[in-house]
Every structure is written in structure tokens, then in C-alpha cells.
User: Which sequence fits this backbone?
């Protein structure tokens, strides 16, 4: 099940957006390495090294966790300078996504998995080994994930390679949430 190198993370695969994001990568033409289309995903939670017992417990917890559907608008480019990562994310993350991130973090803490070193910021990594302070304004991308995956990250000379170990479908999105509108607006 899990060997010595069992770096895991939870994310929403972005295969439906891959063609558009690949065009964006080409248009930006930033230095560094583009994340390949089949590796694009919206990160939910990085778990780090997991032993087999932690992984089994996590799978059990996730099987019981309600997984709401949501839509979001990816409208903001950013850079994690220390990590050398250029990313695309929402300026207004949907409440369902943020609540899910909080629930997963609590489950992970209960299993003894490390807490992330920073507050959750949903994003799709576009470039690695890239640092820039100047990023253009972009047209928004509408994204509605259909599944949550548990990935294993294997480090190679060409960069990390991700393998989906388990996939859970998300609930169907209804109404204004399907358009990426936040339901917490004042009426």
C-alpha cells in the first residue's frame, strides 16, 4: 500500500480545464517549468508523508465525509515566491470549498498529520521554478470539480509526478453555486 516515499495530498483534478490552462501557460510564457496538463489540479490539502495506518484511517474518514459540489471562478494569478510557484486561484473562494478544507484539516490533525504551515489558499499550480512580481490580469476561468482525489506525489528528476490512489465524487451543484456565485452575499 505505502512505501517509504508516501507523500500524499488531496486535490480536485482539473482535466476539464487542462486545454484552457495549457493555452494560458503558453500565453504567459514565464520562465520555469510548466505543470503538464495531466498533472493540473486544485489543491485541497497537502498531507506530507503518511504511514500505512494514517493512510487507511484517512481513507476511512473521507469515505464518511460529505463532499459538497461547488463551482468557482479562477480569476487571479499569484506567485508563491519561496516555493517558486506561479498559480491560478479564485479571488472569492466558495463557502462550500472553504468549509470542506476546514473539515479535512480537522480530520488530518486528529490523525496526527501535520497542519499546513499557512492558511488554505485554493490554487492550481501552473509553473514551477518560476518567480515573478509582474503577472497580468486574466479573463476568468469557470471551474466545477466533479471529484476529490487522494494523490501520491513521487519526486523525479523531471519534477513531481502525481498518481490518483482514490477518487470520491462530489455532490451535484445546484442554482447560483453552479455559476460560481457565492451564496453568502447580502440580500
Assistant:
Amino acid at each position: 500500500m505505502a512505501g517509504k516515499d508516501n507523500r500524499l495530498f488531496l486535490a480536485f483534478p482539473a482535466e476539464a480545464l487542462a486545454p484552457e490552462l495549457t493555452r494560458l501557460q503558453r500565453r504567459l510564457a514565464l520562465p520555469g517549468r510548466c505543470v503538464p496538463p495531466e498533472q493540473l489540479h486544485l489543491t485541497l490539502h497537502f498531507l506530507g508523508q503518511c504511514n500505512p495506518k494514517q493512510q487507511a484511517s484517512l481513507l476511512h474518514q473521507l469515505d464518511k465525509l460529505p463532499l459538497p459540489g461547488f463551482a468557482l471562478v479562477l480569476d487571479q494569478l499569484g506567485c508563491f515566491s519561496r516555493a517558486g510557484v506561479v498559480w491560478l486561484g479564485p479571488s472569492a473562494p466558495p463557502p462550500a470549498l472553504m468549509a470542506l478544507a476546514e473539515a479535512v484539516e480537522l480530520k488530518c490533525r486528529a490523525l496526527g498529520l501535520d497542519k499546513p504551515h499557512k492558511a488554505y489558499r485554493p490554487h492550481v499550480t501552473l509553473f514551477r521554478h518560476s518567480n515573478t512580481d509582474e503577472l497580468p490580469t486574466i479573463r476568468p476561468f469557470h471551474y466545477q470539480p466533479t471529484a476529490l482525489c487522494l494523490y501520491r506525489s513521487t519526486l523525479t528528476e523531471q519534477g513531481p509526478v502525481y498518481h490518483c490512489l482514490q477518487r470520491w465524487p462530489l455532490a451535484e451543484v445546484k442554482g447560483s453555486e453552479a455559476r460560481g456565485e457565492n451564496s453568502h452575499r447580502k440580500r
Confidence is low (pLDDT under 50) at residues 182-187. The beta strands are 7-13, 33-34, 41-49, 72-74, 76-80, 85-89, 124-128, 141-143, 147-156, 159-169.
